[in-house]
């Protein structure tokens, strides 16, 4: 039987087919993306370079000899490939389990096509079982947490974690995410919030979904 790791690897390999030759692409963060970077390095795809979303992804790109380029050096990206913690049938996501949500949202917004790679455990009818990561300015953490409580969530500080951009993360359980765009906006309007992990304003364009029976593209 295929393990979750097998499925992640299958989705990552299939996504290679969507990578155009001779373009800059964005690369997300996480264990599924790690398989994508390995597959890209082993393939004959001649991308111009990759914009990274985290120090861990940059290290993997270096390790596999893939040229990294800064977002400021490119005029948009053809494609962005990333995983998700949850993705619904409208291809809206919760992201940030790996703590890279801010850079992921920035790079996704710069990309013409967002390809989400995921195993079937991530594909859900309703977002919200996975606690929502919210990146906060450290000294506003308690203030923000009180506002998140008012929105119906139970915030919990991710202990010992600082993001690549020097902020803290609060993971919020119990939020009603049935209106993901309004919740994305409402949380981002709390002073002290840097970014939250709802990707509803910029959903994926295609989901490469790996199930035990095979990989399918969901649009
Ligand atoms: C990192 C992310 C990841 O895409 C998400 O956590 C999924 O990770 P994995 O592929 O390891 O399951 O949003 O910030």
List descriptors.
219 residues, 13 strands, 6 helices, binds ribulose-5-phosphate, six-stranded mixed β-sheet, alpha/beta, NagB/RpiA_transferase-like, Ribose-5-phosphate isomerase A
Write the layout of secondary structure elements.
Blueprint: H1 4-15, E1 24-27, H2 31-42, E2 49-52, H3 55-63, E3 77-82, E4 86-87, E5 93-94, H4 101-109, E6 111-119, E7 132-136, H5 141-150, E8 154-157, E9 168-173, H6 180-188, E10 193-196, E11 198-199, E12 206-211, E13 214-218
Parallel strand pairs: 1-2, 1-3, 3-6, 6-12
Antiparallel strand pairs: 4-5, 5-11, 7-9, 7-10, 8-9, 12-13
This protein binds ribulose-5-phosphate.
The site of ribulose-5-phosphate has 17 residues, from helix 2 and helix 4.
| Order of the strands making up the biggest sheet | 2-1-3-6-12-13
Radius of gyration (CA) equals 17 Å
The helix/strand series, from N terminus to C terminus, equals HEHEHEEEHEEHEEHEEEE
Determine the fraction of residues in helical runs and give it as a percent range: 25-40%
Strand content bin: 25-35%
Give the terminus-to-terminus CA distance: 27 Å
Structural class: alpha/beta
What's the rounded overall pLDDT mean?
Answer: 98
| Number of extended strands | 13
In quaternary terms, these chains amount to single chain
Please count the helical segments: 6
| Unreliable residue stretches | none
Q: Describe the global form.
A: globular
Ions and ligands: ribulose-5-phosphate
Largest sheet: 6 strands, mixed
